[in-house]
Write a structure and sequence with these properties.
This protein is 4% helix and 44% strand. The protein is mainly β.
Length: 112
Amino acid sequence: MFFFFVGGVRHQVTEIIERDAARCLRCTYPANLVNYDNLLEIFFIPVWRWPCGKPALHCTNCGFLVPNGHFRSLTDNIGSASSTSRSVCWSCARSLEHSFRFCPDCGAREDL
Protein backbone atom coordinates (compact mmCIF):
# COMPACT_ATOMS: atom_id res chain seq x y z
CA MET A 1 0.00 0.00 0.00
CA PHE A 2 1.35 3.42 -0.94
CA PHE A 3 0.51 6.44 1.19
CA PHE A 4 1.20 9.92 -0.13
CA PHE A 5 0.92 12.85 2.28
CA VAL A 6 1.09 16.47 1.20
CA GLY A 7 0.94 18.89 4.06
CA GLY A 8 2.82 20.35 6.96
CA VAL A 9 2.95 22.97 9.64
CA ARG A 10 3.54 26.62 8.86
CA HIS A 11 3.40 29.85 10.87
CA GLN A 12 0.82 32.55 10.31
CA VAL A 13 1.11 36.07 11.75
CA THR A 14 -2.02 37.03 13.69
CA GLU A 15 -1.12 40.38 15.29
CA ILE A 16 1.62 43.00 14.99
CA ILE A 17 2.78 44.01 18.47
CA GLU A 18 5.46 46.53 17.50
CA ARG A 19 6.49 47.78 14.08
CA ASP A 20 10.21 47.96 13.23
CA ALA A 21 11.18 46.40 16.56
CA ALA A 22 14.43 44.80 15.35
CA ARG A 23 16.52 43.95 12.31
CA CYS A 24 16.06 40.76 10.32
CA LEU A 25 18.92 38.31 10.73
CA ARG A 26 18.86 37.33 7.05
CA CYS A 27 18.40 40.56 5.13
CA THR A 28 18.92 43.25 7.87
CA TYR A 29 15.68 45.07 6.97
CA PRO A 30 13.52 46.37 9.83
CA ALA A 31 11.15 43.67 11.08
CA ASN A 32 8.03 43.58 13.25
CA LEU A 33 7.44 41.94 16.61
CA VAL A 34 4.36 39.74 16.13
CA ASN A 35 2.13 37.12 17.69
CA TYR A 36 1.69 34.08 15.47
CA ASP A 37 -0.14 30.77 15.25
CA ASN A 38 1.00 27.38 14.04
CA LEU A 39 -1.18 26.09 11.23
CA LEU A 40 -1.46 22.43 10.21
CA GLU A 41 -2.32 22.05 6.53
CA ILE A 42 -3.20 18.92 4.58
CA PHE A 43 -3.29 19.32 0.82
CA PHE A 44 -2.96 23.09 1.41
CA ILE A 45 -6.20 23.19 3.40
CA PRO A 46 -5.96 24.49 7.00
CA VAL A 47 -6.99 21.71 9.37
CA TRP A 48 -5.86 22.77 12.83
CA ARG A 49 -4.58 26.04 14.32
CA TRP A 50 -2.93 26.55 17.71
CA PRO A 51 -1.37 29.71 19.15
CA CYS A 52 2.29 30.06 20.05
CA GLY A 53 2.83 31.47 23.51
CA LYS A 54 5.69 33.87 22.83
CA PRO A 55 6.04 36.68 20.29
CA ALA A 56 8.45 36.44 17.39
CA LEU A 57 10.27 38.66 14.93
CA HIS A 58 8.78 38.60 11.41
CA CYS A 59 10.51 40.23 8.45
CA THR A 60 8.08 41.61 5.88
CA ASN A 61 10.84 41.69 3.26
CA CYS A 62 12.01 38.05 3.27
CA GLY A 63 9.35 36.41 5.50
CA PHE A 64 11.87 35.09 8.06
CA LEU A 65 10.30 34.30 11.46
CA VAL A 66 12.51 33.90 14.53
CA PRO A 67 11.46 33.51 18.21
CA ASN A 68 11.80 36.43 20.60
CA GLY A 69 15.20 36.69 22.29
CA HIS A 70 17.21 35.53 19.28
CA PHE A 71 17.57 38.85 17.48
CA ARG A 72 19.15 42.28 17.84
CA SER A 73 17.15 45.41 18.54
CA LEU A 74 17.32 48.36 16.14
CA THR A 75 18.65 50.41 19.04
CA ASP A 76 21.62 48.06 19.64
CA ASN A 77 24.90 49.61 18.59
CA ILE A 78 26.42 46.90 16.38
CA GLY A 79 29.74 48.73 16.07
CA SER A 80 30.30 49.09 19.80
CA ALA A 81 33.39 47.71 21.53
CA SER A 82 31.37 45.13 23.47
CA SER A 83 30.00 43.48 20.31
CA THR A 84 33.30 43.28 18.44
CA SER A 85 34.81 40.48 20.52
CA ARG A 86 31.71 38.33 21.28
CA SER A 87 28.31 37.82 19.72
CA VAL A 88 25.27 35.64 20.37
CA CYS A 89 23.97 32.81 18.15
CA TRP A 90 20.60 33.73 16.63
CA SER A 91 19.42 30.11 16.82
CA CYS A 92 20.41 28.89 20.30
CA ALA A 93 21.50 32.16 22.02
CA ARG A 94 24.94 30.78 22.93
CA SER A 95 27.72 33.32 23.42
CA LEU A 96 30.18 33.11 20.51
CA GLU A 97 33.48 34.57 19.51
CA HIS A 98 32.93 37.27 16.90
CA SER A 99 35.16 35.46 14.39
CA PHE A 100 32.98 32.28 14.39
CA ARG A 101 31.09 31.71 11.13
CA PHE A 102 29.07 28.75 12.51
CA CYS A 103 27.74 28.04 16.00
CA PRO A 104 29.58 25.06 17.56
CA ASP A 105 26.43 24.00 19.47
CA CYS A 106 23.67 24.07 16.85
CA GLY A 107 25.58 24.62 13.59
CA ALA A 108 23.67 27.77 12.59
CA ARG A 109 25.47 30.05 10.19
CA GLU A 110 26.39 33.43 11.67
CA ASP A 111 25.97 35.99 8.86
CA LEU A 112 25.61 39.03 11.08
